[in-house]
């Protein structure tokens, strides 16, 4: 479970225990974020999807002329 991190603001009026608890909360939140692998997995899936999209676009671009001529031939034969 990852908690939302709030800005770290330490004032002179806060007691030492309050400051330590705030710092401790930030350290535990930081450790939780560093050990959370969900973001890394999502990033990997995003990169894989992007690579697949680039390959598909490249194949369709290189085959575009031949596909167009084949569909034109099929269309003329159907008429």
> How many E-type strands?
0
Q: What does the radius of gyration come to?
A: 28 Å
Task: Determine the number of helices (DSSP H or I, runs of at least 4 residues).
Answer: 2
Oligomer: single chain
Please indicate the percent range of residues in DSSP E strands (runs of 2 or more): under 5%
Quickly count the domains. 1
Helix content: over 70%
Counting helices, strands and paired strands, the structural category is mainly alpha
Q: Please provide the ordered H/E string of secondary-structure elements.
A: HH
- Main β-sheet: number of strands, strand sense, barrel status? none
Rounded mean pLDDT is: 78
In whole angstroms, the N-to-C terminal distance is: 63 Å
Gross morphology is rod-shaped
**Low-pLDDT segments, ≥5 res:** none
């Amino acid at each position: 479970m990852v908690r939302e991190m709030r800005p770290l603001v330490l004032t002179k009026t806060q007691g030492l225990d309050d400051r330590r608890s705030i710092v401790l909360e930030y350290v535990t939140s930081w450790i939780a974020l560093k050990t959370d692998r969900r973001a890394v997995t999502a990033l990997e899936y995003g990169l894989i999807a992007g690579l697949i999209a680039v390959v598909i676009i490249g194949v369709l671009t290189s085959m575009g002329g031949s596909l167009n001529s084949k569909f034109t031939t099929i269309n003329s034969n159907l008429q």
